[in-house]
Amino acid sequence: MEQLLMIYPSLSLSGPGKAAPATAVLPSVAAVVAPYGTGTHYADEFANRGWQCVAVTPADDALPSLYRGTLDPAAYRQVVFHDNLEATATALRILRVTAVVAGTEIGVPLAEQLAHELRLPGNAPATSSRRRDKGAMARALAEAGVAGPRSLSTERLQEALSWAASLDTTHVVLKPADSAGSDGVAFCSNPDEIRTAWNRLHHVQNAMGGSNTHLVIQERLSGSQYVVNSVSAAGPGGTASHSLTEFWSDRRIGTHVYDRLDLMNRQGMLPRLLSRYTLRVLDALGIVNGPAHTEVMLVPGRGPLLIESGARPEGSYDPAAMREATGSDHIRDAVHAVVTGTPDRRAADRPHPFVTKVSLCAHRDGALDEELLRAVLTLPTVRGYVGTLVPGIQVRRTVDLLTSPGRLLLAADDPCAIEEDYRAIRSMEASGLYGWEAR
User: Fold this and answer.
1) Model pTM score
2) Are 52 and 45 in contact (CB under 8 A)?
3) What is the mean pLDDT of each run of 10 residues along the chain (439 residues)?
4) Could you please report the per-residue DSSP string of 297-361?
């Protein structure tokens, strides 16, 4: 205990340096594991519901470079630096934590382990791999009789080559088992391309900190892509109750570069089809508690097929702007389920404005032009954004979601207004937003 008190010097239950009165009603406390990316917004939303938040994180030098130096300790009652499961669970008991959530992809397994140790609601840690490892994810679908892409997870190049040769197609995808944001995804059409991609990826650290000891090879799907956000909570007897809160049509530029996501009217026929499939996916993956972000491709002649699902909130969006446009967002929906014990069933009754998320796309390295950046951010339908969008900041050529300079959220009652501003954004990118062409 002495060591814990050294690590967490402010363990009082009513604030730093104060003892809680015997009759005080103590606030509930949530632990956010790996509170990065969209997960940073958990603290504010829990505070809005009268809860306190604790951050659980590895030391900064143990984090993927994407997240180093981004934690704001002031947003949390305590920061618990995770070393081993027993010590971290003990610290959370002292802090009287009553809920554990994963802030981002890298926090999913630990959040599940901690919830289990503390006997709090969560997904079963014994099946955690199927919610992080794309190979295990595909196997889980097959075992449950849910349609999915043909896949193989392997540590051996020769096994990958032999498996690819057994398919009735030459088009395959090679990818890290546990990364995100299209990191390392390689589309291959022959054995030489598979070898080249394998040698580039195998045993190389990916964007989420994984070591790529084994890779996943899948048939390449062709069709229209969609995203379904959901929140789940276990009812009596452990039966999962799922609420599918948002449906998005996902458009890409080429193979890896994100273009735009358009919010779909959930009353349409396509969202109903996606609903039936996604519910089966959530059950197959053992998602009984918390948010999930599920990517699905609608393949002609085969129907919906899973690309991947993450048991955490959607990334790369502005929660405040989303709430302004629709009345809620994935973080708010997730917190509602924690606080009330049930998913918010009012999603179907929310207004259906037209909402689009536009990913900025830099066609080469450059720097943000002040005048054009101001013009982009003041377009009539732009409600918010994520990313460091300040004049003069250096940007890299966009090759995937992780290298996009930022993402804008557009909302309007008229879809034509969004289309007009979308075209204006792409025009300003082409005419010098990144500062490489004279206007």
Assistant:
1) 0.90
2) no
3) 35 40 72 96 97 96 90 97 96 98 96 98 96 93 96 95 94 89 86 95 85 92 96 86 96 88 93 97 97 97 96 94 94 96 80 90 95 98 96 94 94 97 98 73
4) EEETTTEEEEEEEESSPPPS--HHHHHHHHS--HHHHHHHHHHHSS--GGGGGS---EEEEEE--
